Amino acid sequence: MESILSRLWRFALRLIFLLAMCSFSDCYDPLDPNGNITVTFDILQWTVDGYVARVTIQNFYQYRHVDKPGWQLGWTWTRNEVIWSMSGAFATQQGNCSAFKSQIPHSCKKDPVMLDLMPEALPQNRSEDCCRGGILAAWAINPFNSFSSFEITVGNLEGNYSAYKPANLTLMAPGPGYTCGPVVDTDPTVWSVIGGKREEQVFRTWKSTCTYSSYIANKNPVCCVSLSTFYNPTITSCPQCSCGCRTADQSRTSCIRQDYPSSQTDSLSNFDRVQCTDHMCPLQVHWHVKNNYMDHWRVKLTISNHNYGKNYSDWNVLVQHPGFSQSATTYSFNSTLLPTVGFTDEVALFWGLEYYNNELLQADEKQQGSVTTEILLSKDSKAFTLRNGWTLPRRIYFNGENCEMPLPDTFPMLPNAMQTEALPLVNKFQLSEDHNSVFPKGVPWVRYHGIYKDLNINIIWPGKDTVLGVDSVGTVSASLVTYASIQALQPDLIINAGTAGGFKAKGACIGDVFLASDIAFHDRRIPIPVFDLYGVGLRQAFSTPNILKELNLKVGKLSTGDSLDMSPQDEASITANDATIKDMEGAAVAYVTNLLKVPAIFVKAVTDIVDGDKPTSEEFLQNLAAVTAALDQAVTQVVDFLNGKSLSEL
Ligand SMILES: *[C@@H]1O[C@H](CO)[C@@H](O)[C@H](O)[C@H]1NC(C)=O
Ligand SMILES: *[C@@H]1O[C@H](CO)[C@@H](O)[C@H](O)[C@H]1NC(C)=O
Ligand SMILES: *[C@@H]1O[C@H](CO)[C@@H](O)[C@H](O)[C@H]1NC(C)=O
Ligand SMILES: *[C@@H]1O[C@H](CO)[C@@H](O)[C@H](O)[C@H]1NC(C)=O
Ligand SMILES: *[C@@H]1O[C@H](CO)[C@@H](O)[C@H](O)[C@H]1NC(C)=O
Ligand SMILES: *[C@@H]1O[C@H](CO)[C@@H](O)[C@H](O)[C@H]1NC(C)=O
Ligand SMILES: *[C@@H]1O[C@H](CO)[C@@H](O)[C@H](O)[C@H]1NC(C)=O
C-alpha cells in the first residue's frame, strides 16, 4: 500500500514539475535546446491582387520527425484572401467560392488547412522540394529530407495589402503537440546564383516557429526502459504503471490504451490496443550489459513495440551515457553523436538501417515487434566501472519521447561473491542462522547450522570486513575462522567449498568442479633453504577415493594466494606447484586443519580462466551465478554421499 502511494505521489510531483517547465520556457528540451519546426513564407512576387509565396516547413528537431500520415498546416486569413492556385500541396477544403465567376479559386476558406502531396504526384502539381507525403525526417538523421515546400498564389486583396500576414498557424504532425508562435517579419531569405558571385532575395519573409510539447501530445508517457546485466540474473523491468495501469482483469492479452496520439481521425483510433503489461507502455527499450572485455564492453539494445495496430517507420532512439565519449561500434543500427551543451555525458542517436530495420513493426498475438543491435564500446579505464549502475543509461528517448527509467534502487547490482556461494546451500539444507554466536563478540563470522538427514551441518561464512564492509576474503580470515570453528564445534570433517580460477593449460573449464588433492601457497616466497618449503606449505587433502569414484568430480592441485591477480612470480610458483586451480583461502584452511588433525576436503568450482584472454575480475563476476549453482550441486552430492558413512568409507 505504502509503495503504491509513494509511486502515485512521485507521478504527481513529476507532472507538476514538467508542466511548470512548459509554461515558462516552451517545453525546453535540454538535449535539443534549439529544436523547433519553422514555417517560412517567402513572397516571391506581388500580383495585381496579392502575391505568390513559397511556404517551407523545416524540421529543426534533431531527433523528432513527422511520421505518416504527415503534417497538416493551417492558418487564418486576416482579410478576404483566397488561394487562387497551389502547387506542391493542396488545401483540404475549397470552401464557399460562390462569389467568383470567371476564375474559380483553389480555396476560399477563411482558415484553410494544407496537406502534402505524395511523392508520385503529377509533374503539373509539383513545386520545388515538394511532395514527401507529409513526412519530415529528423534534422540530425537526414537534413536533406527534413523540410518540405509548396507554392501558393494568394489574391482577392485590395489597397496596400503587402503587410497582411496569415495568422494563428496550426501544425498537426500528425497529432497534436505543436504550438506555433506568431508570424513575424524577418530578414528576407537570400540565396546565391552565378556560382556564389551574386545574391538574390525574396521580396519579403514571414516566419513562425512551432515547438513541441509532449504533454499536449500525450496525457501519459508512451515509453519505458528495462535493464539487465551479465553480472546479475535479476532483470529490472519497466516501472509498474509507467504509462498507465492495466485493468484488473489480468487474464487478457490485449488492453485498450487511451490518449495515445493517433494517426487517423475516426473516433475508434483514439484508443490504441496494446499488449497487456504491468507498465502498459506501447514502447519499451531494453538495455542489456552483455560482456566486459579487457578494453571494451558490449551492450545489447532492443526496442519493442507493444502496439497491435501501429508500425513506426524511421524510428529513432536517443541514449545519454558517459560511455559514448569513447569510440563505439553499432552493428545493426545507424548512429551518430549529437552535440551537447552544458552536459558531461555524451548523447548518441540510433536509427534503423534502410530496407533492414527502419520499420518497427506492430505486435501480433504471439510476440511484440522489435528491433535490436549490439553496441561495442571502448573503455575509458578512468571512468568505466561495473559498480553503481555506471554501465546503465542515464536517459533514453524514443522518437523524441522520454522513456520512463526504473529507479536507481532497483538497478541490477554487482553480486556479493561469498554470500552468493553460501546462501543457496543454507536454503538447501534448511539451516538457520546462529544468533548466540559461538565466536568471540564483534567478529563478523556468520554460522548457519541445522540437521540434514543424519548429519549435523554447520556452514561458516567469514562475513564482511568490519572496517570496509566487503567480503572477508583471503588467508588471514580463512585461518582464523577455521581455527575458531574447530575449537567451538569439534567437527569430524571440514569441507572448504568455494570458487576458484582455473588454468585451461591444465584442463580446467568454466563450471568445472574440482576436488583438490594437494594444496600449497604461491605467494610466500622465502628463498632460504627449508624456509622456501615452509613458504610453499604443501599439504594433502583428506583422501576420499569413493567420493571421487561416485561423483565423477575432476581432481587437481590447488594453489592459494592473497591476490586476485597473478604476478609473474606467482605464476612461476603456481607452475612449480603444478596447480590446476587457484584460490584465496584453501592453503590456509589446509594449514589449520592439518595442525589440529581434522580431516578436510576442498571442493572448488571454476568461475574464470586465469590463462585466458579476459580480465579475471570481470569474468569472475560474469560467471559467478551459473558456477555457484554447479558448486552447490556438487556440495549437495558430497553431503548426500557422506550421510550414513564413516570417514574410512569416503
Ligand atoms: C529554430 O531552430 C533553428 C535551428 O536550430 C534556430 O536557429 C532558431 O533560432 C530556432 N528558432 C527559435 C525561435 O528558437
Ligand atoms: C487568432 O487567435 C486569437 C486567439 O485565439 C484570436 O483572438 C484572433 O482573433 C485570431 N486571429 C484571427 C485572424 O482569427
Ligand atoms: C456563400 O457566400 C455568399 C456570399 O459570398 C453567401 O451569400 C452564401 O450564403 C454563402 N453560401 C453558404 C452556403 O454559406
Ligand atoms: C493537379 O493539377 C491538375 C491540373 O493541372 C488539377 O486538375 C488537379 O486537381 C491537381 N491535383 C492536385 C492534387 O492538386
Ligand atoms: C503600405 O504599408 C506599409 C507597412 O504596413 C507602409 O510602410 C507603407 O507606407 C504603406 N504604403 C502606402 C502607399 O500606404
Ligand atoms: C504494419 O506492417 C505490416 C507489415 O508490413 C503490415 O502487415 C501491417 O498492416 C502494418 N500495420 C499498420 C497499422 O499499418
Ligand atoms: C545511415 O544514415 C545516413 C544519414 O541518414 C545515411 O546516409 C546512410 O545511408 C545510412 N546508412 C545505412 C546503412 O542505412
Automatic annotation (TrEMBL):
Residues 223-412 form the COBRA C-terminal domain. GO terms for molecular function: catalytic activity. It comes from the Eukaryota. Its main location: membrane. One of its GO terms (cellular component) is side of membrane. One of its GO terms (biological process) is plant-type cell wall cellulose biosynthetic process. This is Uncharacterized protein. It comes from Nyssa sinensis.
